[in-house]
Amino acid sequence: MADELNDSRKNSKDEQLDSFRVDDKGKTLTTNQGLKVSEDEFSLKAGERGPTLMEDFHFREKITHFDHERIPERVVHARGFAVHGEFQLYKSMKKYTRAKFLQDTSKKTPVFVRFSTVNGARGSADTVRDARGFATKFYTEEGNYDLVANNIPVFFIQDAIKFPDVVHAFKPEPDNDIPQASTAHDTFWDFVANNQESAHMIMWIMSDRAIPRSFRMMEGFGVHTFRLVNDHGKAHFVKFHWKPALGTHSLVWDEAHKLAGIDPDFHRNDLWGAIEKGFFPEYELGVQILAEEDEFSLGFDILDATKLWPEEDIPVTIIGKMTLNRNVDNFFAETEQVAFHLGNVVPGIDFTNDPLLQGRLFSYLDTQLIRLGGPNFHEIPINRPVVPFHNNQREGYHRQTINLGKVSYHRNSLAGDTPAPVSEGEGGYASYQEKVEGRKIRARSESFADHFSQATLFWNSMSLPEKMHIIEAFSFELGKVKSESVKQQVVDMFANVSLELATAFAVNVGANPPKGDGSTITKSSPALSQENTPKTAKTRKVAVILTDGFNGPEVKYVLDSLMTEGLMPEIISENIGTVQGTNGVKLRAKHTFLTAKSVLFDAVYMVRGSVKNKKFNKDAAYFIDEAFSHYKPIGATGVGIKWLEINDFKGKPGVIVGTDIGEFVEAIAAHRFWERMLV
Fold first, then answer.
1. Domain ranges of the chain
2. Which of 119, 144, 150, 327 is catalytic?
3. Do residues 193 and 486 touch, judged by C-beta distance below 8 A?
């Protein structure tokens, strides 16, 4: 009977969580012990004006809980946002791995995904220049598997012992706690210049990848080289990739700045709103697989976390799709208390000797002990596996399991030597038997010594607009650095990546141009440029500017057509509420220019200004001008076309006149029109 009950609980993570969901609406107020409360306005006192009494257990429980509502925020990845979803396999990976969730194409595996920034505190903005976390917890039939990824495929350092150093360097400077959520300061760039293994990561951080348009439009990378092991004990090296169905797209730097003030929750709002509207984000899971005998065939060490495997050399094979389809019920209970750990693996997925990975295997578990108050964080509902767990761990802070019986040790006779291990053939996890020999030593392999070739590969792979953005990013960041020595060190360092790059930002920050011939590497990887990403208009937000008297049938046709194509038009008018058009057409304005700015939208459709309201017209002109300066598509019909003529936008790239919806949607799918840089 117990086994049947456990089997039923495997079916759905949602079903398991149901018993923890509480709706307080319409309920009687009680203490945490279930005692009904008769008064919640006044503490118990000795007389109306007397002192509060210690025996007021309700007051003490309420205040104590309030005092302890905040758990320590994560040191890194503090600002996060998470959603539920499911993963389904396209093709069986049985040839490579024992992992059951990577073998059965008919099974849907529940997942929980947390996106995050790395640097800033919980109260920082979403759109800062930073790497993004992309952590996925798979609730599999063999236990939880955590793929703890980033939106950048490499990292700053090669050995985990330096992790405290890089985090200390990019966090606010300790004397004044400035700047928040930014690396534009002396200590970070001093670290970079004196730890040159960071060169490749810095190129990604200075690129458009560090300011994504949306969590829905960024890639995820497992960073490390892992192992897949099949039923016969045969192993292959693997890199994991998440590929967004909407393509990989970014903000421009000016947008990112403004959004941090206008809507610091921009990425949160975007993800939450998309799911609420039924636009469920999709990501395909891809793998790069390398045979063990080819470990040294790539010209660099595959255990080096500052290196990627070029997709042109080792193609990414798409094996499944993840769909994110439900927002959390409670941010704290789920998003804040979820605990990811690279050591949460299932049979068929194993580790390599990557020294950064090896250190993370310790650090993630250790971090949860201080954040979540002890060793029982796995019992928090969001962290519980969908399969039962049985072991001899007992007690500790926040223990919820009520263990029956007197035995809590192995081996034993009183409980028939249970709970007992099982063999690998019965589903037990067995580590890959890699042969390891060597002296105890604190050193780094010479195969980790190349710090610049892949940084140059990244630079060579960028389009002209992307290169210009990287130069601007270096110029901004180093422009905030006070130390002339640090500036010069960084210039000289990145001359090893590209003399063109280093010379350009050296001039901008007042440093001496670098000397030397620069890199001779000419290889590029088209997969690294966002110019080659899938492009679609689906789920893009379109600002529709109109006032009373608009052409009703024409505008209704355009809006209906946009929604049919999967876009989200939102109307901006003089007031929030009904806007009256011709032929009895009425539309509802969701925004005014006080509540909506162009940076919140992907495109603009200009219909009609105001007959009398000069401020509205002035704001509309600024709105369109700003969108144009951010290279966004702009459409106009009827009276709205005059606005394009006033701003001299008519005929420019990405400016669409008339009601040809196909042309406008195609322009929105293009995302940006960089040709305007030269206009």
1. 2-67, 80-383, 460-531, 535-678
2. 150
3. yes
